[in-house]
Specification:
Elements (H helix, E strand, L loop, with lengths): L4 E6 L3 E6 L8 E5 L3 E4 L19 E2 L7 E2 L2 H21 L6 H14 L24 H17 L18 H11 L1 E4 L5 E6 L7 E2 L5 E6 L2 E6 L10 E2 L8 H12 L6 H5 L3 H4 L4 H19 L3 H13 L10 H17 L2 H18 L5 H16 L3 H18 L5 H21 L2
Parallel strand pairs: 9-12
Antiparallel strand pairs: 1-2, 3-11, 4-8, 5-6, 7-8, 10-11
Length: 432
């Protein structure tokens, strides 16, 4: 089978990827394992450092005290990649390097033991952009601090096998810059961040706020799927960021993190801004101002305080703001999160159901974010024995996720099982 994509020079963007054949909506375009990856520090106790599964009671590495694994099998399979890292973690203890420093170190270790697959990449690490010339002094200072930490973390970088590394990767400052500009966030089936990884060929993908492809993960394997029909010679695009933000905020984030000004159709037309900022600014601005505090409570897992803050805002300020308003949607979502963690199921499903019509407007089908939100609400409906509602919600989710995740994704398989459970329960109820 000929490859479905090829590298090319995208006008005004530099390198890019385009289709070589017609690609249908929902089709798997490309899949790849990372050249290097690591679990996020904030989830280091909850996610297996080999297969990236969420588990309770993970086995801890007895040497570095940080890496954790599902079982002995995962630990043994991980050892080849972990043995160098283990020594570095021990030498730095009790300090723990940042995610980007750990990823850069894992990249060094991977390059010192190259695999056959890494030689087949469309885009070499040497070709990756560092964007150093586009960075502000503050950002350069931050990178300099990370580079110093990398040198401390991997002290023998200058000696051990340095000749095997690409020239730009022998310099910690340049390497850290490449990693921070080109790594991908690895997410679980529900699109929650669990780690970071570098996938060299897919770093060629350019950004669009209304992309024709999406990425989902199975463990650490990245799957690129088309969400629209794509013609031969058409460029493949993804969204680098969460697009549920007004144009000004999206552009600011892309300029700060990826060093370009987005000129996609959505940014130039600002087509969703009126909806996102619906209502008078004086009514919704207090919701926007409250978000950092509420997000802080969520990060601290202070669910009771989060729910109190969200419900107070939604019943006072929020009652005068339309459900479509971006900031009201975010607070409604956080209220649902808090209710789920506190076991307030009726409240949770009420908040969740309120978000669904809004999600369908902001994330045109098929979009994985909308699909995952439907699954989340369907599970609440099912738990509360609203079986017919749950089945209908699951069906809507399946229409999306069979395209965005594929039939063989564990999330899709779990969804099909939930649908069958609902059908069985409905038959049993009707036969009484």
């Amino acid at each position: 089978m000929p490859p479905k994509l090829t590298r090319f020079v995208s006008p005004g963007k530099g390198n890019g990827l385009r289709a070589t054949v017609r690609i249908g909506r929902g089709e798997l375009v490309y899949s790849a394992e990372p050249l290097a990856c690591c679990v996020s520090n904030k989830l280091a106790r909850d996610v297996c450092h080999h297969c990236f599964s969420r588990r309770e009671n993970l086995l801890r590495c007895s040497q570095c005290k940080m890496a954790r694994y599902c079982n002995i099998t995962c630990q043994k399979q991980a050892w080849c990649g972990h043995k160098r890292e283990c020594k570095c973690l021990q030498s730095l203890r009790p300090r723990v390097p940042t995610d980007s420093v750990r990823l850069a170190a894992r990249l060094i270790f991977a390059l010192l033991s190259p695999s056959k697959s890494s030689s087949e990449e469309l885009y070499t690490l040497e070709e990756h952009e560092s964007h150093l010339s586009s960075m502000s002094e503050n950002k350069l200072l931050g990178l300099s601090q990370l580079a110093s930490m990398l040198e401390l973390y991997v002290p023998d970088l200058a000696q051990e096998g340095a000749s095997a590394l690409p020239p730009s990767c022998r310099e910690p400052f340049s390497l850290i810059a490449k990693v921070t500009c080109n790594c991908f966030t690895i997410s679980d089936g529900e699109l929650q961040e669990i780690g970071v990884g570098l996938y060299p060929s897919l770093s060629l993908l350019n950004h669009d706020c209304g992309p024709n492809c999406v990425m989902v993960f199975v463990g650490t394997k990245l799957q690129l799927r088309a969400v629209r029909d794509i013609n031969p010679e058409e460029e493949l695009t993804i969204s680098y960021i969460e697009t549920l933000s007004p144009t000004e905020e999206r552009r600011r984030q892309l300029e700060d993190q990826y060093h370009f000004t987005c000129r996609c159709q959505h940014c130039d037309s600002q087509d969703k801004d009126k909806l996102m900022l619906s209502g008078h600014k004086s009514t919704w601005y207090p919701l926007k101002e409250a978000l950092p505090r509420l997000e802080g409570l969520k990060a601290e897992s202070d669910w009771r305080a989060l729910l109190e803050g969200c419900s107070h805002l939604l019943t006072t300020v929020g009652c005068d703001v339309s459900d479509e308003n971006l900031y009201k949607l975010r607070i409604t979502d956080m209220a649902a999160d808090a209710c789920i963690h506190l076991g307030h199921w009726e409240e949770a499903v009420g908040y969740g159901e309120k978000t669904l019509p809004v999600y369908s407007q902001y994330f045109p089908d098929p979009h994985p974010v909308h699909g995952v939100q439907l699954v989340r609400v369907g599970k609440l409906q099912h738990y509360l024995e609203r079986i017919e509602d749950a089945l209908d919600t699951f069906k809507q989710a399946h229409r999306i996720m069979k395209l965005t995740h594929g039939d063989d994704h564990p999330m899709t398989a779990d969804l099909l099982m939930k649908m069958e459970e609902c059908r069985t329960e409905i038959v049993q109820f009707n036969s009484r």
